[in-house]
Design a protein that fits this description.
By secondary structure, the protein is α/β, with parallel strands linked by helices. The chain has a single domain, classed as Metallo-dependent phosphatases (Purple Acid Phosphatase, chain A, domain 2, 4-Layer Sandwich), CATH 3.60.21.10. It is built from four helices and ten strands, in the order βαβαβββαβββαββ. The strands form two sheets. It has a five-stranded mixed β-sheet. Strands 4-5-6-8-7 form a five-stranded mixed β-sheet, with helices on one face.
Length: 158
């Protein structure tokens, strides 16, 4: 299963759309907030594709702050991260993710792409579509280790 994870597009509709168009073979697109409106617009324009969204601190729609997605035997917690102080530390988010019995946490808010493991827990931030066109590509095959690639739109630099 191929999942594209984006966050913090902050009205960069064209860049978010380009990420989707470059990855049309994906099974799921996840947007982690702060640009949820453009992600929902792209979802509406592409009803054949699967999308999931959570609200960020700059999204003013009445929508969920987090969700858990099950994929190929793994549980993925999706959140923007602002409610867990991710700009200061990750311990609060990691403790919460473990309490939810999830295998992976996807978060944004910091605009810094990162993929780490903490005691077997995958902690992934796709970075910012707005700043440098960054996003994460996750490949999941049941019984296999998670494969995470941090990527950027062509011609972009951090």
């Amino acid at each position: 299963m191929k999942i594209i994870v984006t966050s913090d597009s902050h009205q960069k509709y064209a860049d978010l759309k380009e990420i989707v168009e470059l990855n049309l073979d994906s099974d799921l697109f996840i947007h982690l907030g702060d640009g949820m409106q453009e992600a929902m617009r792209i979802s509406d324009e592409n009803p054949e594709l699967s999308f999931a969204f959570v609200r960020g601190n700059c999204d003013f729609l009445n929508y969920i702050d987090e969700t858990v997605i099950e994929a190929e035997g793994l549980k993925l917690l999706c959140t923007h991260g602002h409610n867990y102080y991710v700009k200061r530390e990750l311990d609060t988010l990691i403790r919460y993710t473990r309490s939810m019995d999830c295998d992976v946490v996807l978060y944004g808010h910091t605009h810094v792409a990162k993929s780490e493991q903490h005691g077997g827990l995958y902690v992934i931030n796709p970075g910012s579509v707005y700043d440098d066109g960054s996003y994460a590509i996750i490949n999941i095959s049941e019984g296999e280790p998670l494969c995470v690639q941090l990527s950027q739109l062509p011609g972009r630099t951090q």
